[in-house]
Amino acid sequence: MKNYLLLLFAFLLLVGCNQSQQNKNEDLAPPVDKTIIFIRLIDEIPENETNIYPYIQLYDNDGNIAQNNKDAIEKFTSPVHAGKKVKWKSSNKSIERIKIKKINFKQVNGSIDILDGQNISGNNEEVERKVKTKLENGDKEHYSINIEIDGKPYTIDPVLEFHKP
């Protein structure tokens, strides 16, 4: 009887630990229906600083990550899929909440508008949009994310890349 109770206790303890670990990694749990791009403030921004890149991190639920460097963040590319959604979201791990004001298509050489809508307004901490369906594998959209931290506006310029399933 004691062995049975010990096994039951060990099982319940393991289940509880596993559930706790799943909750810690909820940002990286890939949902079937969307790509989620998280924006995270990783360090305090000095009072008169206009360059946000040393203080910001982008990561998605596909495992891509970029931080601390303008070049890395501007090359940050998230894969998206036809008819599925893309969500931009302030990360739970951010030292301050980030308001996402707007997502704008950015006209650069070779950039294809792959989202439904070129100027997408935000609703505070997240924005969501559907990916068009008639695209070629590898099509890329350069875009800007207009954000606000402590009432101050900033812009980040990453990339979306279309992938056929």
What can you tell me about this protein's structure?
The strands form 2 sheets. Strands 4, 6, 7, 9, 10 and 11 form a 6-stranded mixed beta sheet that branches. The model is unreliable at 18-26 (pLDDT under 50). By secondary structure, this protein is an alpha+beta fold. It is 18% helix and 36% strand. It has 2 helices and 11 strands; from the N terminus they run H-E-E-E-H-E-E-E-E-E-E-E-E. The protein has one domain: Cupredoxins -  blue copper proteins (Immunoglobulin-like, Sandwich). It has helices spanning 2-24, 70-75; strands at 34-41, 56-60, 65-67, 77-80, 85-90, 99-105, 119-121, 126-130, 140-149, 152-156, 159-162.
Quickly list its features.
11 strands; alpha+beta; single chain; 5-stranded mixed β-sheet
Number of strands: 11
CA-based gyration radius: 19 Å
Mean pLDDT equals: 83
Write the CATH homologous superfamily: Cupredoxins -  blue copper proteins
The assigned structural class equals alpha+beta
How would you concisely characterize the structure shown here?
This protein has one domain (33-45, 53-162): Cupredoxins -  blue copper proteins (Immunoglobulin-like, Sandwich), CATH 2.60.40. It is 18% helix and 36% strand. The chain has 2 helices and 11 strands.
Please outline the helices and strands.
Blueprint: H1 2-24, E1 34-41, E2 56-60, E3 65-67, H2 70-75, E4 77-80, E5 85-90, E6 99-105, E7 119-121, E8 126-130, E9 140-149, E10 152-156, E11 159-162
Parallel strand pairs: 1-5, 4-11
Antiparallel strand pairs: 1-2, 2-3, 5-8, 6-7, 6-9, 9-10, 9-11
